[in-house]
Design brief:
Layout (H helix, E strand, L loop, with lengths): L11 E4 L5 H27 L18 H19 L2 H31 L3 H6 L4 H35 L4 H41 L4 E5 L8 H4 L5 E3 L4 E3 L4 E3 L10 E6 L3
Antiparallel strand pairs: 1-6, 2-3, 2-6, 4-5
């Protein structure tokens, strides 16, 4: 997109678009499904796949070294999971969801501009030229999902080995495993929300800069969950290219990009 210099009589404030809840839920369900499949396969093929003749202690139950047996089963399961949730498949699933987020965010922002300025939203969408940015952000999100996949498998393996090494019973191992599954699913939800929010905030920022908008006002969600460092930024004007610094956390941030940030920006279209 050729850079524009938007002006509006009297000046105009426009809110950044909110991250769409539908795609946030879709991303969350997709990542939770991956965690659920990994969990079920590990339980059935690794923990229950051990050659057990007793439930008292794993060390008493194995023919040979139980740790070696577990690692062999874990590696076999890992190979199957990497085929089921290959890098290519994850990239395609992420790209499909983020394409919807991008379409919604683009449409909402340009329709707001059209209402206030009169420039055609279709023209803005057709000439924006964000393909390279979208591709980079999509691959970044896919990397987070791949990391979650890999970390989940590694955590299940190492924690089960530790429990077995200290002589834990089968009941203890399964109980602790259920706790790990719950934590990994919660982490999946956080990852989904965070990545959709980041994608939405960054693409919105780039679109605003392409429209010649240089300044914005930080706005929080104004509830008890707002962290102190973000409340300190609330209502302050800043250069959107640089972000907003606060001495409370010694960081320069942009609304919606910090971990689990629910803040947004009011973009300032200057007076003509």
């Amino acid at each position: 997109m050729a850079k524009r210099e938007l002006k509006a009589a009297g000046g105009v404030l426009i809110n950044s678009t909110a991250a769409p809840k539908t795609q946030t839920n879709e991303m969350s369900q997709m990542i939770e499904f991956i965690v659920s499949e990994i969990s079920a396969r590990f339980m059935n093929n690794v923990i229950k796949g051990m050659n057990k003749t007793t439930v008292s202690k794993f060390a008493d139950a194995q023919v040979g070294n139980y740790a070696v047996i577990l690692m062999r089963l874990a590696k076999q399961t890992n190979r199957r999971l990497l085929r089921q949730f290959s890098d290519d498949r994850i990239e395609k699933m992420v790209a499909k969801i983020l394409a919807k987020v991008n379409f919604r965010s683009q449409k909402d922002m340009y329709q707001i501009v059209e209402r206030h300025i009169g420039i055609s939203s279709k023209e803005l969408a057709a000439t924006e030229g964000l393909k390279a940015n979208i591709n980079a952000l999509t691959l970044e999100t896919a990397q987070w999902v791949k990391k979650l996949r890999n970390d989940t498998i590694a955590e299940y393996t190492s924690n089960t080995l530790r429990e077995m090494a200290i002589g834990g019973s089968l009941e203890t191992v399964i109980k602790n495993f259920d706790g790990m599954v719950a934590k990994r699913k919660n982490h999946a939800k956080f990852t989904a929300r965070n990545q959709i929010s980041n994608f939405n905030a960054i693409t919105g920022k780039i679109r605003a800069q392409n429209l010649g908008i240089t300044e914005g006002i930080w706005r929080t969600s104004e509830d008890e969950r707002v962290r102190h460092s973000h409340a300190d930024r609330d209502g302050k004007k800043f250069n959107i290219k640089d972000g907003l610094y606060s001495s409370t956390d010694d960081k320069t941030l942009f609304p919606g990009i910090d971990f689990q940030c629910r803040c947004h920006v009011e973009y300032i279209i200057p007076d003509d």
